[in-house]
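[job 0412] stage=complex_fold ligand=protoporphyrin IX containing FE status=START
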Amino acid sequence: MEIPEEIKKYIGLSNEEISILRGEASGLIKENMDGIIEEVISSLSQNERAVEIVKASGLSIERAKELFREWLNLTLEGNYDEEHASRVFKIGLAHCREGVPERLMVSTMGVFSREMIRVLLKSNKAELVVPLLKALYWNLALMLDSYEEARKRSLERATGIKGELQERLISISSKEIYDEYSEKRRG
Ligand code: HEM
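[job 0412] stage=complex_fold status=DONE, emitting structure tokens
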């Protein structure tokens, strides 16, 4: 099974839920999109690392808002098929290229989720929260997958070590780090 389908199945994102997103959820979120984006920008601007990355990339606030709007529209109206997945994968790659740490991507998705859930709950539409969360996690899973892919390919190019062997090496050293960490916490 292709990865986007696998994630959809794992999360339980159904075609009915995708239609719900396109309909009722989309309407409500779009009406409140500016406020949602303002909150995300506000969180980003309070984070030192995010500010450094934005400065280094030359990204303006206006452009950042536009990019968020485009992605939100895609999330609310997309088909969650291969084509959609490859757009999201590419968005993830752009962040990996810009040096955005994964924890910042995850945290930002947390801010988007928080703000969108607030909108749905305020409108007494609690039943839309689960489809929305599934859609956001589908996006996040693909974005993080793109980081893994980029890392594997860069390491393979630089060292010649293939992805599978990289995974085994990481697993071995993670075991050592886990033991060291456990020892430190005990001592
Ligand atoms: C859920 C979180 C986020 C979403 C949905 C999002 C959305 C996007 C989109 C749609 C793009 C365009 C990608 C492309 O060229 O294909 C982009 C680029 C970018 N994003 Fe994000 N972003 C997120 C988090 C962040 C964070 C945490 C930072 C940290 C500072 C960041 C900084 C950037 C930068 C520097 C670019 C490149 C801009 C350019 O090429 O001009 N983004 N983002």
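The radius of gyration is 19 Å.
[job 0412] exit 0
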